[in-house]
Each structure stands twice: as C-alpha cells, then as structure tokens.
Amino acid sequence: MASGGTSPEKTAGRFRIRLGSGATGPFLGLIAMCIFLSLATDTFLSGRNFLNVMDQITVIGVMAIGMTFVILIGGIDLSVGSVLALSAMVMGFLGNELGLPFGVAIVIALIVSGLCGAVSGLMVTRLNMPPFIATLAMMSITRGIASIITDGEQIVGFPSWFSDLAITRHWGVISATVAVMLVLTAIAWVFLKFRPAGRALYAIGGSKEVARLAGVRVEGATIWVYTVCALLAGLAGVILSARLDSAQPSSGLGYELDTIAAVVIGGASLSGGVGGIAGTAVGVLIIGFLRNGLNLLHVSPFVQQVIIGLVIALAVAGDSIRARNR
Amino acid sequence: MTQSASSSTPESVLELRDIGKAFGPVTVLTGVSLDIRRGEVQALIGENGAGKSTLSAIVAGLVRPSTGSMRWLGQDYAPASPADALSAGIGLIHQEMRLLPDLSIAENVFVGRLPVRGGRIDRATMNARAAEQLHRLGLDVAPTTLVRDLRIAAQQQVEIAKALTLNARLLIFDEPTAALGAEETDRLFDQIAQLKADGVSFVYISHRMDEIARIADRIAVLRDGQLVATHETAQVPVKRLVEDMVGRPLDRMFPPIEKVAGDTLIEVEGLTALDGSFADVSFAVRAGEVFGIAGIIGAGRTELVRAIAGADRRAAGQVRMQGQAIVPADPRDALAAGIVLVPEDRKAQGLVLPHTIADNIALANYASIAPKGWVLPSVVDRFARDAISRFGVKGQAGQRADELSGGNQQKVVIAKCISRGPRVVILDEPTRGIDVGARAAIYEVIAELAHAGMAVIVVSSDLDEVLGLSHRIMVLNRGRNRGILSHQEASRVAVMELATT
Fold it and tell me: Tell me, what's the ipTM?
C-alpha cells in the first residue's frame, strides 16, 4: 500500500558509472585479474597468449550470446551443451557419412539446432512449462539423438578448408571463427541496445504482464529467443568441430553451466530484465583468462574448478550486496 | 456523533487504545480506540481504504501499530506475529483467501497444528474433525479433497472452518460472505450464533448492510483511518450508516467538470466474463467524457475494464469504437484500436520497477520513438523528458522506477500510456496507495485527458473520487450494471445503496 518515500528521488542526480547494466563490477574485476596474472607470470601478457585465449573462448562466447537473451527474458536454457553435440553430429553425419556438400551439412545442422530451440520455446509458452524443466527435457532428448546418429561413435576428419576456419589466423591475428564470434557479439549488442525488439526483451524479463499490457508479443518473442539461443549453440558445435577436426556425441558436456556462469558473472539477473552483451562479454573473458592464467600458474584442474566456483559466488554476491545497499 | 464506548466494562475482552498506523508517508489509521466485549459481534464498516483491514491485521498480529496499545483479557497485548495472536486466542479470516491449493481440505484446516499420535500425523482424527466442522457449515465434501478442486465459495468455507476450529476467543471475519450464497451465509451465521453463546467474540467486517443488521450487536464506522461513529445497536438505518461512512473529507480538490460536446466514441454491449465476474454489461462513453465505474471490492470492475482492454478473454459481448466492432483478444488489439489501460496494480502491471523511467515510458511507444526501427538513447531520453515535464513527474529520465513515490510512479504509468495518443483511456484505481496531496495532481491529469477529447473511464473504490471526477457513474454490483447515474443525480448515498444492496 505504501509506496516508497520521496527522499530517494533526491539521489537521482548522483553520478554513476555505467558500462552496460551492472557490468561495472565484473569489468573492474577482470582488469584486476589481468594485472595480477601479468605480474605473476611472464607469459600471460603477450599477444600470442591473448590470441590463444580468444580461440579458447569462441565456443562459450557464441553460446553466451544466446544465453544472454534467454536469461534476459527470465528464462534459462540447459540444453545448449547437448544441442552443440547434436549439431556437430548432424553435420558430421551428413557431410562424412552421407557425403553431402559440407556447406549444406552445416546449414542443415544449424536448422536442426534452431528447431530444437523452437520446440523448447513452444514448451515454455504453449504448454506453460517452467523453462528449467522444458530445456532439461530438451537437453536429454538432444543428447540422446546425438548419440543415436552414430551409435556413440565419433566422426573424425573434416575437409581441410573447414578445419582451417578455426586454425588459420588471417593477417596473423584473427581466425574466421573468432571473427564470427566478434561479429555476432557486436550484432547482439546493437540489437539489444538499439532495436525495439531488443528493448522489449528487457521488458519481458522485468515483468511479462507489464510487457504484454504495453503491446509486446511476449509469446512470439519467447519462442524466438529460445530458437536463436539453440541456433547459436548449434553454431558453437560447428566451431568446436572445426577446432577439434572431429565431432563427438559427448562433446559440450557441462557447457550449459559454463555459459550460464559467464552470463551471470557479467551481471545478468536470473530473474530477468537485467544484463547485457557487454556484461556477458566481460563474463566470458573472465572465465577464459582465469582458466588460462591458472594453467600458466600450473594450478591443478581440480583446484581450478574450486576457484572458478568461488569467482561465480563472489561475482553474484557482490552484485546482490550492491543491490541491497542501493 | 462519536459516542465513546464506556471504557473497561467488565465484559470487555479486547481494548484498543489510540491505535495508529502509517506506511511510509501514507497514514492509514489514526487514534482508533475500540472495545470488544465477550460474546458479541462487533461490526466494523467503512469504505474501501478506510482502514478496516489494517485495523484487523494489527489485532491479528500481521501488522504492528505505529502508535497506541492493546489489552487482551486484561493483559497487555502486542503480538509480533500471527502465531502470537493465535496462541493468545485471536484468529483472522482473510478477505483474500490464503489456502494451500495442493493440500487437502483437512490439511488446510489444521495446517500448523496437525494432530499427532505416536509421532505420526493422526489423519483419521484430522479428517473426522474437519468433516464435522465442514458439515456444520453445510459443505459436504470429503475432507481429503484438494482445495484446488473446490469452488471459490467452498474454499471460503474451508477458510471459515479453519478459523472456527482454532478454539479462538476472538475471531475476525474480513468480508467472509463475499463469495458465499444465501444458504451458506445462513449456516455461517448459525455457527457464529452458537459460538457467541459460548462466549466467543467476533469482529465482523462487511460491506453488506443487510448482513450487518442480522448478525451484529454493535457497529463501529471507520472513515479515512479514523473511528467516526460507534452505534450501541445494529438497528441503525442503512442511510445513516452510509452517511457515517462517506462523510466528505475537506482536503479533496477536484477540477471542474466541463460540458461534454463530443460524439460517442466507445460502446460496450452485453460484455460477459469467462469466469462469471461480470455479466451483460453495456454502456457508452463520449469523447471528452469522464465515465466513472463504482462498486465494492469483488463487484467485477477490474475484470470488466481488463476485458475491454484485451488483457483478459471474454465470453460474450461486443466493444465498438466509433461504430466499428473490435475484438480485443490481446492488449495489442485494444492498443491498435486506441484503447489504453492504466492498470490497477502499477507495481506488477504498470512498471518494470528495476528499469529507468525512460525505458518504462519508451516501452509502449517504440513506434513513435523508433519509426525506422532504431532506438537512439538520445531520442528515448528526449521523449522521456518531454513526458516527464508534461505530466509533472518528479524524477529524472535515468532514474529507476522503484525509487519514485507512488504518485510519481502513477504519473509515469499514465505518461507511458498517454504518449501513444490513445482515444480511450481506462484508469483502474488511479490513486490507490497515493497520498492525498499527490492525488490532486492525478485528478488534474485526468481532467486534461478528457479536455483533450479522449473518452476517459475511471474505476475507483474511492467514492469521492468517482463522484468528483465523473460526468456519469455506472454502479456495478456482483458483476451486474445496477444503473448509470448522471453527475447531478449521483450522490454518495445513492451510489452506495446501488452498490451494497
């Protein structure tokens, strides 16, 4: 009944640093971490190492774009790791086993991935299923199909032009796959910031009912968001296959959690309406540089898991503490 | 007109002294002193928002008073939680039902105090006792039925059964019969009479004057958070009670009502809800007219305007804009036809609270902000600042909506809706939770909308507000149109009589 005092209105003029929404803290954390790793190792601060990290984060980076959309509208997609595997297996099967032109195989793999997302979106909107459950089901289904295709066997050896996409660094700097990630990130940033449909995703995540009453097509947007997320997961599967020159039904296991972690570290709220591509990019870089730095420091992979867990907890706790002190 | 009840008569069980409550800047109760006697039914009446529910929430330990003290059975009484109140023997039956839909009737009745035998829940005893109580209330349903599967009236009876098995010494009923039929109401009153004979006291809140006359021993009237009258008998003419309830406060200012020159803009014919909350409602509103919709809580006002705005589906009926039938199946359709709804609950339906004022205002207006599909932050900012100054919002474009006071939040919602340039504006409870000072500014805005040639529909539980703003007033009672009164013939008494009988 009571609705906020009048005093907070006075704080409106206060100066605030803004980098996307809520990404300032993680950004400062990223810089601090890079400074520390530069001092602690002699190899971290080098162009070569930087390019290596960029290659390593491509897969998570592409998936995190789609996951940002999903989390922005207040959803979650647990199926991205499995869709990644399905996409890779469909592509490998069509290209290597059936002998389709490899470009066609890639396109069909992406279409199949997008369809998986559309089905998740329909389950969420039409069947009113919680996104967690709908995509959990999709996760299991797609992982199963990925294994059925070759009865669990991996597919090895793709055309050399395809593998080169992930390996050849044009002008000695950038591989095609990294370029794809950067371009997609830029497009997603522009979309979320400057397009009405992108702004509408924030409104949907903030409150579905407010968005609906304001004339936003909430159902349609939701289905599209899950479709795009799965499509990008499929693309990540293609990229991963190019890097490894093979496709395995078990690839991408647990990637959904890394992806969600990157988005959340970047300041997005799992309840929706808060977040952005800039923050997600910071989150992806934090995870990438952290892994890389810990390797350079010869920290064991087991300890790495503990540290990454602590970083996730810290990032989110810092965020909610700041929110509480507002 | 106030008769202070003789203090501390021997049979007084509960004494309230000088109880006051403020929520932030909004004062909802001031200086209420009231005695409840052993074995009586004390009726508590007043308009919506008069403070009845807050007062009962204080007694039941849901809300702590800002000022004043209470004594219960001769001891100081300051419940910190509903559990305290319950263990002291005071139970409350809520206006809105608070049942657990996926538990059985019996589990709901005994939740928090499940009978235990040998370390296990004694389901047989629990079900038997629940069945017995339900039977007394006239609800013959197996106590193992899930509450989810019951009709609303039956759910209300479960709520009542829950209260009656509390072994409480004082029971507070907040609109217990809102969902009940005549026969179920009779059964409830039989139960109340029996418990009264055992010395149980009741506070009975209702809008239905006929019930008050039947069941109450004494009547207390609240208005704007103050106790304005107590009657030592329930045999008081309805007209007198209504006058007590609606006595005009002095600090209300409404803009003058202009003559309407426009043509009929929107016609509603035979509109009927899917869930039965309203049926066969027809009316028409002209351009430049303010059309008020009055009625007590649960009369179907909000459901009606939500259906017109496409927010809810309807079962039958037609909405016509300038003679053209429209089918508002979704808010988009209504918006396209020029109908906007400023919803009742601005925090859940009007604003994305963690977003900025600019983003909130822009949300419904991207068609004009971004005609080519590009949202430029500078344009959003300018658009928002225009709206902010036009509607006198005290706040800045980049400020979060949840940092604003209620009145300013409401202006942001109105700004968001009106910036589209609609032809019909529906405002549902435009001043709920807004303090008196800020209300005048909202009234000015409403009058200006009509002056600018829009058809304005105002739904309000605040009678003065509907009367002060509207050219004509439609009174809804249990989902039916009970009549449309012109500004001249509408008075508080006339409206309340249509709304409550």
Answer: 0.78
